[in-house]
Amino acid sequence: MTTALRVGIVGAGLIAGVHARAYATVPGVSIVGVADPRETKAQALASTVGARAFDGLEAVLDAGVDVISVCTPPDTHAELAVAAIKSGAHVLCEKPLAGTLEDARRIVAAAHTTQAVVCVGHVSRFEPDHQRAKELVDEGRLGRLAMLCHSMTTSLPGWSEGGWLTDPRRSGGPLLDLAVHSFDYLSWVNGSAPTRVYAIGADSPAGPATYALATLAYANGAMGQIEVSWAHPAERGFKVAVELAGTLGRLAWDYDSINGGAMYSRQTGRTLLDPLGERGFAREVTAFVHAVRAGGPSPVPVEAAFQSTRTALAAQHSLDTGEPVDLTTWEVA
């Protein structure tokens, strides 16, 4: 594909702006439209990238686009992503894949009917430190993984239009909205699917179950632990902490000292990891555009995103019922 890729962005909120800025870093890409029923929002974002504003997906598709980025709340993903896929467009859909398993299955089924690339925005896979850790694991530097820990903690998000993010009926709460990154990353870096999840939560002034811990068992024998919070003080900012431990070494880093990630090896001791340049969203969009031009494969297939969504929903079910969930058999009641 030698001509410029024509991109339409659906949604004009915070994450849509992130996508727009990421596409702007990729040569040979032109953002032609931003679609949002909130006219002033669509116009404001469109004006920053030299695009036109539209009132919805159908209008931006009619403008002639090759790619659609779905940057809207999870409860709208299925309707928008399926329609975009059926139009023949390549689709980058924000995480989680959907708010329910039924909707997630609809997107997976639609993706199986097209030759277009359908990718899901699990950006943790593209963060330089997370990506480097995956490379080290695949090289065997840590040996056989035994314990994987991933923590994402912040204050209650206040930026979503109409407060949809803090409405668990729309966002799924922190386990689906935020910890889905952790569920996805640990399965990806481990190369093995979880077979069991158990979650507990605590209420806070930010709301019910705004702090949660989940433990996981994986098919390859590894264990996982995930911490997620919307209950931390705003002054603390957004923190990510990761630890991967194997039979030959341990890898640990956090976003309070992003350039100070370190690998601990039984053979070589402590080695600092170099900072690796641009951040995740630009790398995610670059990988997606490359896949579109190459005819695939998707950098984050819908099947993987479905499993991450399913694990997050199962964790919420465990938190609600107080019982562990067997992921080899579990279905939503």
Give an account of the 3D structure:
The chain is 35% helix and 28% strand. It contains eleven helices and 15 strands. It is α/β, with parallel strands linked by helices and 333 residues long. Mean pLDDT is 92; it is low at 274-278. The chain folds into two domains: 5-122 and 282-300, 3-Layer(aba) Sandwich (Rossmann fold), CATH 3.40.50; 124-275 and 311-326, Dihydrodipicolinate Reductase, domain 2 (2-Layer Sandwich), CATH 3.30.360. It has helices spanning 14-23, 39-49, 57-62, 77-86, 101-111, 128-138, 168-171, 173-177, 179-190, 280-294, 302-321; strands at residues 5-10, 29-35, 52-54, 67-70, 90-94, 118-121, 145-153, 194-204, 207-218, 223-229, 239-246, 249-254, 262-265, 269-272, 325-326. β2, α2 and β3 (52-54) form a beta-alpha-beta unit. 46% of the residues are buried. The strands form two sheets. Strands 14-13-12-11-7-10-9-8-15 form a nine-stranded mixed beta sheet. A six-stranded parallel beta sheet has the order 3-2-1-4-5-6, with helices on both faces. The radius of gyration is 20 Å and the shape is globular. α4 (77-86) runs parallel beside α5. Residues 130-251 form the GFO/IDH/MocA-like oxidoreductase domain. InterPro entries: Gfo/Idh/MocA-like_OxRdtase_N, Gfo/Idh/MocA_Oxidoreductases, GFO_IDH_MocA-like_dom, NAD(P)-bd_dom_sf. Residues 5-122 form the Gfo/Idh/MocA-like oxidoreductase N-terminal domain. One of its GO terms (molecular function) is nucleotide binding. Pfam families: GFO_IDH_MocA (PF01408), GFO_IDH_MocA_C3 (PF22725).
